[in-house]
Each structure stands twice: as structure tokens, then as C-alpha cells.
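Subject: mismatched residue count in predicted assembly?

I count 956 residues in my input, but I want to confirm that the predicted structure covers every chain. Input:
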Amino acid sequence: MSKRTVELSVATPGADAHGDPLRVPIPASPADVDPELGGEHLLINLGPQHPATHGVLRLVVELEGETVVRVIPHVGYLHSGFEKLGEYRHYNQIVPLTDRTDYLAPMSNNVGVALAAEKLMGIEITPRCQVLRVIACEMSRIISHLVWLGTTSIDLGAFTPFLWAFQQRERIYNLQEMWTGARLTTSLTRVGGLLADVPDKFVTDLREFTETFPDTLDEIDRVLTRNAVWVGRTQNIGVLTAQEAINYSLSGPMLRASGVPWDMRKDKPYLGYETYDFDVPVGENGDVYDRFLVRLEECYQSNRILAQALDRLPDGPINVDDPRVILPPKSRAMNDMEAMIYHFKQVMEGVKAPVGEAYAGIENPKGELGNYFVSDGTAKPVRWRIRPPAFINLASISKMAEGHLLSDLIAINASVDIVMGEVDR
Amino acid sequence: MKHLETVKGSDNWLTTKFTALVNWAVNQSRANSLWPMPFGTACCAIEFMATAASRFDLARFGMERQAFSPRQSDVLICAGRLPFKLAPVIRRIYDQMPQPKWVISMGACASTGGIFDNYAMVQGIDTVVPVDVYVPGCPPRPEGLLYGILMLHKKIKGEDLFDPSLRTEHLLNDKGLRLPPEQIDEISEPFGNSVHQFRSA
Amino acid sequence: MNPSAQALQATFGNAIGRVVDARGETIVYVTAARVRDVLAWLKQTAGQDYDYLVDVTAVEYRDRERALEVVWNLRSLASRRDLRIKVELDPRGTLAVPSVVDLWAGANWLEREVFDMFGVTFTGHPDLRRILMWETYAEGHPLRKDFPLRGRFSRSEQVRQALNVNPEGHYSLEELAIAESFDELPAEMRDRLARGQRDQIANSE
Amino acid sequence: MLEPYVPWLILLVFVLVNAAGMLILSHFAGPRRPTPVKLAPYESGMPPLGSAHERFSVKFYLVAMLFIVFDIETVFLIPWATIFFGSGAPGGPGMGFLLIEMLVFLVILFVGYLYVWKRGAFQWD
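Triage response: the counts match. Full output below for your records.
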């Protein structure tokens, strides 16, 4: 930020050699004459309780006039000790904990922890369960991106996309409620299967959603993408090059917006994602505008995956039929002695895992969500580590925000798409 | 006008009717234009946003204007769990709200610490700030929160304007707590399933 | 079996301990002294180029004899290979491990969190402070196995500590310096900072 | 002679009485319960640090002054515009004369605008 000096001078009654009035220069810019007069830095708190911090994040911002000199983020204001609680829970009891970490994409978190537990125990899930889990992950991606779209557009001044986005979210909430009984805290998966099979009305409603959802996306696209204010506020703001993105271990839309084509669904496929036909949007210059375009395009792609998943939904059991892992149905448990014993052992002692450890990373809407279980043979994990994509993406905000205006800092903070439940765990 | 007839046992017909009228008028206007201070921390905040959005529409209850600063808000809605690191923040914001002010504790985690009976979580925000209405649920459905708000309306309409004890400012006592320590320990006792949280093996 | 494991054994010989290959993952145990060179080697040599740090964490086992492990998950984006490096530390001894912030900038917060939760100090970390708990948190390191689930203090003491945390619990010394507001600080805080006393607040009984 | 303005004056009086009344009434009737925390500045729930009375750089003051100058210019345009179109009345000034007069005013201000532009006051950073 260069200090600009303004040369002002005042004509005095005297005359110089050429007879012109003698001009006496006035030190116009105080900063040159007396740096102390230039104004010290102002320290403000974009504190835990702030409409633009998307949760209880706290940014201590050092300002010079309007320009951000430095941003010091403080997190931990929603630290709820999930990993400590995980060590006191059976594997199936950990699933309800996971909806509360990233509460914008609850089903995707349930699938993540179930995949890690099944990888630890070496369980192969049924094809119908695989497709249903893909449906769950893609629905979570849509509602998470819709919340991001709504709140970011509010931050930058556009209120209507928030209402459009939340109207579509309510439709997915209805589907989630139909499937699991809860709008938000779904606790969908169990080790080796799912909570319940989808009701028939679910398939028709989801089909109808996939047909009408792109219209709302087109409206949001038409309102925002070529909107002069939106473009002006987001283009080449908070730029991260591909090299910096990799060095800061970013993941998900943040990484892809900087031009690194890494998507867990394509590069380390799970749940049969390699058999689906979808493409991964990759940005060029890694600014806030590219992250918006990447996330908007991802909504379209998720919609395509949902349509394909509905076409190929095989019928058959949703749970693997291994009585040590999945509760026997109530009818058999009450009549058949062996089933009752399995039922009793599972409820009282939980599902035992072999000694060892397993890490399973999935493509969560925020980035690569990893669940790392270490087990010593008992039914409760020794260590449950959540690899938090939002936490790691947020760490780069001080690098992105230097030198920008304060209003750009709000746009950058919104573009990181943080959810504090996952950042603080 | 149902509320007016319930005034009983008052000494003098004329004055009681007058105070009842003033009470009715002021409380009615207060209840129907509560500006919420959404102290949204966790999952309940998303459900609060869904309540404020177009389907469940908080605007029907005069709560259209969400005030994000304590200076212009009447009811502090603690939507979501409250870790210990956030306790001084909610205490400071509650103190900085002008009277008359109320607090709705939305969700099981705010009301009792919920499933987080561990080192990081305040076991119920009533150990930090006085709470008027507890809304159960994890998260409470938007209808649940709206019912909680209606109960707060009923409470406000029953308040007496001329009773100073309702509106006095209670700061932290000399020990730096809101309640005596033994009462806080008693409130934060583990109950239900979390009593069975044995060793971690 | 990840080919990098053999390459490591060939290059570093006895610095590399056991190599475990289970469930499609390769885990390499490294001695604490050489872990810094191993990680730098993995990142910088042409054949390996593990340029992406997935995660840094720590694991403590329930039986006290087993060592506390610090875990690095590395990934090479080009060749799509994952590798997990582990270092075993004595839980009762001093927990110190070299920091890798200059190799991968993403490790900054991850290491701060491991320090906050386990008490493992990362030597060479630019700004090792607590990240999840407030800075003057006096109950210790929560994820250690000897730390009780509900914390060491009584609930009322925890609430009292939380409600009365001093301003420097919220602000790092660096921010206090930025604000150049040392003379505007409350008097008792000023002399407390001058005395360098930043730990527990005096019990006001 | 003032008949057309009477309703406007009544409105003005009502507005003044209303505004002043609300201020004075709330000042006296409104209960005040100050506490040290309530009077402290609101900084998103954090204890405030440092004072807000820092010195700002001069460019903000410069822009404010420029805004006032060019805003008043438009204020003068409004009454002129009201009489400009109806000015064919005999004996009154002709449209041409009014146009020239306003153009002179605008040119003078435009020269000032160019001077300020060249001096670089609009250059923000």
C-alpha cells in the first residue's frame, strides 16, 4: 500500500526571479512529515457473536483505516469434546454424534463414520445399501451448498437467494424426515447397513425433486453469476494459487477452485462412485468467484448423480446379514433363541472391532472428511479422530485476507464455507 | 379482552382496572414485537434459520427483525450448545441487553447440556444466564420453537408492569457466579443415560 | 504395500521401525530423532513427492505401558498414494516432536490442536498456543486418558473459571501489543502482565 | 398569500411535536438501569480492547468534503428545474437565458471536479 504524496503549494506575495508569485510548498500528506500522525492500527473483533461469521468463529482484525493489515482467527468457541465422547461410545452410538459435528450435511457424516467402522471391521455392505448411501451423500451435498449459497448471498447483500435456497432445503428436509424421522439429526447409518429402508413415496418425491431443482439453481445462477455487484465483490478477492492450496492442505471446493482437480469421489473412489457419470468442476484463479462457480456447478452434478442413483436403485436387503453386526429383526429375536442372544449381546456389549486402525476419507461438501478409528479389540474405540476439512480450510484465511478491505474479509470468510461444529469438534 | 376479567382480589375497582389496562396495552405490544437476538451456535441455529425462513416464518409473530446486536433486541434465543469458552460471551451479551429482556433456551444442549456431558460443555445455560422458556428437542422442530415463543408471549402478557423485581439487573455475585456454587453443582448433576457413561473401555 | 515403505527402509535403515500393511494402508514407524528428516525426505525427493499433508494427530492407548503415538497422514496427489508415519513417545516422559509447519503450512493449526489436546509440544512451531480451549485453561490436556470425561474441577468451579477468564485469556500477547493499548488496560491486569503471571486467576473466596 | 403552505406548516409542526415528544418522553419516562458491563462498548461479546478513538487517515475527510460540494450542486439544480420548463411567461426570463445561467454554474463546478481529479484525490489506496 504505497503512501501517495500530494504536492500542494501556496502563492505568496513575494515574486521569484521570473516575476511569478513565489510558491511555498506545503507538506500536504501528514504521513510523510510526521508518520505518527498517519494513524495507528485499529484492532477490532469480528467476534463469536456476529452475523457474518457463519457460526461462533472469532476474527481479530488489525485495520489500517479500511484495509486489513492482519487477521488472527480464534476458534474453539464451539469445542464440544466429540473425540473424547467417542471413546465412551460403542461404534453404533457414535453415529448420532456425527450429525452434530457438521450439522449442514448430517447424512454425509453418518456415511463417513460408517465407512470407517466397516473398513476397520472388514465388512462388505449390500449393493442396495451402497446406492442409498450415495443418495444420502449427494442430498447432503445439495443442502450444504444451499445453506452456503443462502448465507453468502446475504453477506454480500442479496437476500432473495437465501429464501429460494431454504425453500429447496425444506423439500430435502421432508425427504430426510420421511426416511429417518428427523429433519436434521438423521443418524442414518449403522455399522454394516442403514437405519431403515426408504419408503416408496421417497423415490417418487426424490425423482420429482431432481426434475424441478435445477430451475431454482438457474434462477440463482441468473441472479448472481453475471451480477455486477456480485462479480465486483468476489472476483480476484482472497486468491490462492494451486501450490498454496496444496501447501495449506485445503480440500473440496476450496482446493478445486484453485485449479487442483482432486476429488475423493474420482481419485479415491468409494461406494461405487467410479460407476457414476458426473464431472468435477475445477476453477482457474482460486478466488471467491471461482469457489462460488465450483459449488454452484457441484449442485447440478449432485442432481445428476441423484437421478442416476434412482435409476439403478437395486432391490434387496439394506443390511449385511451378519448377526454379530446387525440386530436380528424383532420377529426372529423374540422367537428364536440364538437370535435373542445375538440381540442381547449387541445391545449390551455393542459391536466388537478387531485390534488395529483404519482411516476412511470421503468427499464431504466442505472437503475431505476423514474418520480414523484405532481399536484395541473392545467395542469402544481407543481413539476416534475426525479429519476436519473446514478447520484446515479456515487456517488459510489469514493468508487470503491480508491487504484486502474489511468488506472483502467478509466475502472471503463466507467463501471458506465453514461450519463451526466441525471446525471445533 | 379475556385477560382483563382475570384481575381478582384487587383493592380498588378504578385503579386496578387502570393498571390492568396499562399492563394489557404494554404487554400486548411487547409480546407481539419481540426482536430476537439469535445467539446461534450449533445445529439448533440451522433449525432457527429454517424457522425464520419462508416456510415457518417467524415474521407472523412480529419477530421479523432479527437484531444481531444486543442493544436493539428483546429476547436472547440461545440456539445451540454452549461450551465453556463461550460462557463469558453469552453472559456479556445478556448483560448488555436493555431491559425488558427475556431468554429462550432452544434445544436440549442449551437447556441441560444434552448429550455433551463432558469437560467442554456448560450443563444448561441457566447456570450462566436466567432463562424464561426452555424448548426441548434436538433440534426442536420449528413448530416446537414457535410453541416456545407463544409460551413466552403468554408469560409476557401475564407480567405486571409496575413490579420492579421483574426488571432489576442481576449481575454475577462476588464469587463470579450467577448462583451459589452448590446450586450449580446440583443443576449440573449427570442424569439419565449419561449416568452410565462408565470407563472408556 | 506402498513402495515408499521400501524406499524409506533403504534410505534410512534402522531409523525406520516396523512397517505394518493392513486394510490397504501402509503404516511406517519412525524413531523420534529422525522423523523430521524422514518427512522432509518424503516431501522433497522426486520419486516420492508427498506434497499433501492429510492430517496430524496423536493416539494414546488405554493401557499405560503402550506409547503415545504422533501420527502424520501424507498423500502424494500425483500418484494417489497414502502413507502414515508414526512416532512412539513415552506418555510419562517429555512429549516433544519436531514441527513440520515449514514443510506443509496446513500443519500449523493441526499441531496446535494436538498440543492443546495431548500436550505434545512441537519444537519449531511459530506460535504454539492452545487453539480449542482458552489460553489460560487450567485443567490440563483433555484427550489424555488420565483426564476424566467431565474434567477435573467441579462444575461450579468450571463455570466460575470460564466466566471470570481474564482478558488475556481471550487475547494473545501479540494482539495486546498490536492494540498498543497497554496503558489503557485495567490496572490490575497491567501489573499482572508485567509480573508475567498468566496462569490461574486468584480464587476470590 | 400563504394559504397554499398552511397544510404543509401543519405537517411540519406535527412532525416536530411528535419527534421532540418521543425523545423527551422516553428520556423522562423511560427507566434507566445502567450497569458497568451494559455501558461497555459491544464488541461481539468480547471484552473491548484498545480505544476506538484512533486517528484515521486524511483521505476519508477528503472524500466527505468532495461529496458535500457536489451534493449541494445537485440541490441547486432542483429548484432551477422546477421553473425551467414553465418559464415561457412574458416578462419572465426566457428558457435560453436560464439554460445559459445554469450552464455557467455547472462549468465552474466541473472545472473544480477536473482539478480535484488531476490532483489525485479520487485515487483511493
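DSSP finds seven helices and four strands in chain B. Marking this ticket as 'not a bug'.
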